[in-house]
Design a protein that fits this description.
By secondary structure, the chain is of the alpha+beta class. The chain folds into 4 domains: 66 residues, Nucleic acid-binding proteins (OB fold (Dihydrolipoamide Acetyltransferase, E2P)), CATH 2.40.50.140; 69 residues, Beta Barrel (OB fold (Dihydrolipoamide Acetyltransferase, E2P)), CATH 2.40.50.140; 72 residues, Beta Barrel (OB fold (Dihydrolipoamide Acetyltransferase, E2P)); 98 residues, OB fold (Dihydrolipoamide Acetyltransferase, E2P), CATH 2.40.50.140. Helices cover 20% and strands 36% of the residues. The protein contains 7 helices and 20 strands. The strands form 4 sheets. The chain has a 5-stranded mixed β-barrel with strand order 1-2-3-5-4. A 5-stranded antiparallel β-sheet has the order 8-7-6-9-10. Strands 13-12-11-14-15 form a 5-stranded antiparallel β-sheet, with no helix packed on it. The longest helix has 18 residues.
Length: 407
Amino acid sequence: MVDAEQDNSMEGEGGEKSFAELFNESGAVQGRFAPGERVDAVVVKITPEWVFIDIGGKNEGYLDIREFLDAEGNVAIKEGQTVRAYFLYSKNNEKLFSTKIGKGDAGRAFLEDAVQSGMPVEGLVEKEVKGGFDVRIAGDVRAFCPFSQAGLFRVAEPAELVGQRLNFRIIEYGESGRNIIVSRRALLEEERAKNRELLKESLREGALVSGTVVSLQKYGAFVDIGGLQALLPISEIAWGHVEDIADKLAVGQQIEAVVLRIDWENDKISLSLRSILPDPWERAEREFPIGMTMTGVVARLTKFGAFVTLSPGVDGLVHISRIGRGKRISHPSEVLKEGQALEVKVEKIDREAKRISLVPADEPVESAGDDKKEEPDDFRKYMVKDSVSFGSFGELLKKKLGAKKGA
């Protein structure tokens, strides 16, 4: 081969170049390739047996001329033309490539090496079939990828993968290559494990992170935060109640959120979007002064009263003792329904505790009964169930700064 002839000529000339120089020029240091790696290279020379391509770094690769013969036996390629080829192996610093890696002995050898070494192979997802996908790997070899192996989670929209070129690992190879099963999940799990170790060193609760929404569920959204998926619960998307998560987020959307909780043992990370949004309770005293009358919406009925939404994220409580209009009732549902518009009046507000006491609009504020003493404990029970947020991002920063001063 050409490289070998060059090496011999150098020796015949008395070794004008040092061994280190020859080693560097040979490609042992530069131009390293993994089996199956794809290159787009320019044809630099054509001989009766080989086609040589420029693979960069003063390196050349070669392909069998027979790959470029047409039906009449003519060479269907010219010097200066760019070809797409796949690296097969290197011998004596000579790098053999192929444009048809899936055919013949060379293709089979490549796939068998990929099975033994666990080397990834590129595949084109051609179509959805029963139980998974039909994938073409190594040029023209058919493989099957089960739905369960197509991603870290079951693919919600299989059609989205069709037509994509992705990396896979061969997990089964039988019948001399006629029965091949590949997995994309295996590679993604390895990538996630590496990213997990990197994030463990830097990720902290309370940190602000950027991510991409990858999946929407009834209970929240999964967000990719650099190779790991974190859950953004539906209760942490906004201060107000979110009925349909699709009204607030979309797959592919870029967001910033606060890390709410980290559980490395169970690989669970929770995020909060509402923690970086303005806290509506910070302006509640100005917007809802004592004695103000307004129309709210009954959000929830409990045994101790009715919660009424005054604005997104701000609910007030009408105690059960104020609902029956003088008539004793055992539950607010006897006279009210969730979703019902209700005219109320602000009786008391406690911004720190995020609590507003309401009374029916036609009842004087000063006529509150003794039963309202039960309200604080009941309200706290409700608030604990309703929210697990850290609060506003500003409050987070205050806590962190306070902790540093205390240290």
